């Protein structure tokens, strides 16, 4: 199965296309505002409002053999711990080998932003190259999950 942390996810359409081609059940999870797909393989899950409710729904279900699509690092860490494959929107795989460093960097950056409220920043814009890397990574992850 594929689980998509759908709030602010720029690759929902790509996930649906690849999941359909591979005939894989996919859960698109958000706290609302997502248009349900008519595709029978795609199930839209709307969770109640609240901090991390969608994340908890995914983390409580994703396990070995599943793929999780998220940009949320704490959610990714829980899913990796459960044995799921995790991909960021740009195709970067979050694995047992790298999730600790990524989580530590995220926490450090949060501390730096809290210490300097005038600090500007943010990630670079999502690009066509990111979308292409994501599609390639999802294809590889689905093949690995099936094998």
Describe the structure.
- The chain has one domain: Rossmann fold (3-Layer(aba) Sandwich), CATH 3.40.50.
- The protein contains five helices and six strands; from the N terminus they run βαββαβαββαα.
- It has helices at 12-22, 53-59, 73-81, 99-115, 128-146; strands spanning 2-5, 26-30, 42-46, 67-69, 85-87, 93-94.
- α1 (12-22) packs parallel to α5 and α2 runs parallel beside α3.
- It is 43% helix and 15% strand.
- With 147 residues, the protein is α/β, with parallel strands linked by helices.
- The chain has a six-stranded mixed β-sheet with strand order 3-2-1-4-5-6, with helices on both faces.
Percentage of residues in helical conformation? 40-55%
Distance between the termini: 14 Å
Oligomer classification: single chain
Low-confidence stretches: none
Mean pLDDT: 88
Largest sheet: 6 strands, mixed
Family: Belongs to the UPF0178 family.
Pfam families: DUF188
Protein name: UPF0178 protein SAMN05444339_10130
InterPro entries: UPF0178 (IPR003791)
Topology:
Elements: E1 2-5, H1 12-22, E2 26-30, E3 42-46, H2 53-59, E4 67-69, H3 73-81, E5 85-87, E6 93-94, H4 99-115, H5 128-146
Parallel strand pairs: 1-2, 1-4, 2-3, 4-5
Antiparallel strand pairs: 5-6
Helix pairs in contact: 1-5, 2-3, 3-4
């Amino acid at each position: 199965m594929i689980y998509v942390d759908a709030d602010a996810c720029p690759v929902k359409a790509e996930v649906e296309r690849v999941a359909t081609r591979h005939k894989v059940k996919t859960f698109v999870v958000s706290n609302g505002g997502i248009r349900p797909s008519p595709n029978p393989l795609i199930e839209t899950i709307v969770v109640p409002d609240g901090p991390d409710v969608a994340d908890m729904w995914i983390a409580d279900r994703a396990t070995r053999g599943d793929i999780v699509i998220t940009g949320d690092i704490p959610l990714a860490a829980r899913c990796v711990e459960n044995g799921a494959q995790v991909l960021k929107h740009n195709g970067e795989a979050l694995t047992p080998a790298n999730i600790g460093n990524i989580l530590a960097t995220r926490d450090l950056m949060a501390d730096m932003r809290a210490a300097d409220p005038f600090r500007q920043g943010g990630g670079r814009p999502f690009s066509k190259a990111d979308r292409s890397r994501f599609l390639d990574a999802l294809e590889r992850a689905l093949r690995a999950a099936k094998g």
